Amino acid sequence: MRRLLLVTMLLFSPLLARGDDLIPTAEGTKWEYDSTETLTGSTPLNSVVIVRAGKDFLDGKEVVKLETFSGNVLSKTELLTTDEKGIACLARSGKEGKVTKLNPPERIIATPLNIGANWEKLSEVEGIKVRERFRVVGEEEVAVPAGKFRAVHLHCEDASLLSIKIDQWFVPGTGLVKETTMARGPGMLHRTTRELRKLTPAETKSPTPESLGIPSSLSEPKRLAVEVSSDPAGGSKTEFKPDVAHIYVRWFGRDLPENARVRVAWVAEDVGGLVEPGFIIDETETIAPIQNASARFTLARPPDGWAEGKYRLEFYINDSLTETVNVTIR
Length: 330
What we know:
This protein has 330 residues and is mainly beta. It has helices at residues 2-11, 19-22; strands at 15-17, 30-39, 45-58, 61-70, 73-83, 86-93, 99-110, 118-125, 128-144, 147-158, 163-171, 175-185, 188-200, 224-229, 239-240, 246-253, 261-270, 279-287, 294-300, 309-317, 320-329.
């Protein structure tokens, strides 16, 4: 039994969605939300909320900047960092423009997003500081004006001074597609709902076959071009040493179906009889928000190193096997 456990630890290397794969961070990315606010005794207020991604610097380091506009007025700016632990807010400013650094940083999304996972963050609702405790309650189909998504449902409740409930539906690779916030107090009920209406990606040049190491003689473009490397900056490689810290996996979609499900499976092919050939070590799935979407994932080295042998990465579009990359660790 101990030997089997050791084998599992050697093989297992979760396909972790990095923070910069959880949301598009390219400068110029824009989310548009339909927002409805309802306050006791008042007529519901409908508006459009726009979030724009950009770049900024904090303490000499480049960070992601998200600016939120309500009614064409800048209402909030957040400076974020993204890594294998998820997404964290380092600093924030409101309408007045005063930047407040957060110490410690505020965890917005914590990975992996497994059912039951939870984290805390300090926030402010109705002018009252609250400690929000978020929990992953499951995966659900959610329909918003931008379309149908398979989303991770996050739930939060706080009953310190106000009774506050927050529900968020988050799609890796797209971001927040729906959020409802309800604050209840003596004689007061304030409810806000935001639903994604449109996601506009940053204007980027589509990768060429040559840039991905694909011979130019293959004139027919692939629907899914893939890349495996030990370098986070890119470059193709399929043979790795057992002590390599990370294996970076990328895919680039071209003319994908609407809301295509792109699934990546990490499969043991021949690892010296430790497990049967074809054993799926782990897999992950992303909903492509646009036809020419792309994503990156990280295979993290197990604590005792990689088990030597042959593996393969399988790439599926809507459960149809589209590409396979053979990987050797030795």
